[in-house]
Design goal:
This protein has 231 residues and is mostly helical. It has helices at 2-16, 20-42, 45-50, 56-63, 66-86, 95-112, 114-125, 129-132, 135-157, 167-183, 185-192, 199-217, 220-230. It has 13 helices and no strands.
């Protein structure tokens, strides 16, 4: 029985060699949906296999076990948002415009990728256990703080941003505003109605989140000058 199973896996692996990355991408895409909807314990490998171009045995062949697949999906989720940040090309913008663009990107990415938010919520239920095991996630997130630090430094050196703003704290604040919009959308809209979650409402929130962050970081005299010019 064991030899037959091994031979079957070998045949599937040989077949997958024609497009191994395509197979892996399919598995990760479906696994993201399954884990984000049902959590680690509720997700079913059989369901993931049924919806992809592979089998349960091949999933284990690629990722080791269920927790290995879950960790890889978590890494993929963080990789997507951090990759998007690196594509913003903030270095070519003035500091205020760069910070506004980063805020808007974070807010808009999160609302368009609710599976990412659910994955982060699920990992917090597990007390970050799988993140601690992943060097990839640590390496992915470190540049996010470094990029924000560079924007803040440029703004402070040019006299636009005030001194004493901590990049890690600012990252927390941007993330918190953008995260709550998705994590609590069901309960918030049930209590207060769904006006903030229409396309128009979300665009307004995205703009206002960036404005709040900028007002926190900008020097008071720069805010006053900008408001005076806008009158």
């Amino acid at each position: 029985m064991k030899q037959a199973a091994t031979a079957s896996v070998a045949r599937e692996a040989k077949s997958a060699k024609r497009d191994p990355e395509g197979v892996r991408r399919d598995i990760l895409t479906v696994a993201m949906e399954e884990f984000s909807q049902n959590g680690l314990s509720g997700a079913r490998i059989d369901e993931i296999a049924a919806r992809t171009r592979t089998s349960k045995r091949m999933i284990y062949y690629y990722f080791g076990d269920k927790e290995g697949l879950y960790q890889r999906v978590l890494e993929e989720a963080y990789g997507k948002v951090r990759g998007g940040e690196s594509d913003l090309e903030l270095e070519g913008l003035d500091p205020a415009a760069a910070l506004e663009k980063l805020c808007r990107f974070t807010f808009d990415h999160h609302r368009r990728n609710p599976a990412f938010i659910r994955m982060v919520m699920i990992e917090n239920v597990h007390h970050g256990r799988h993140m601690r095991l992943s060097e990839t996630i640590r390496d992915l997130n470190r540049p996010a703080i470094e990029a924000l630090e560079k924007v803040l430094r440029r703004g402070q050196e040019s006299g636009v941003f005030r001194k004493g703003v901590d990049p890690l704290e600012l990252h927390w604040e941007i993330s918190a505003l953008s995260f709550f919009n998705v994590s609590n959308s069901a309960t918030f809209s049930h209590i207060f109605g769904g006006s903030l979650f229409t396309d128009e409402g979300q665009e307004t929130l995205s703009r206002h989140v960036a404005e709040m962050v900028l007002r926190y970081v900008l020097r008071a005299d720069h805010i006053a000058a900008t408001e005076k010019a806008g009158r």
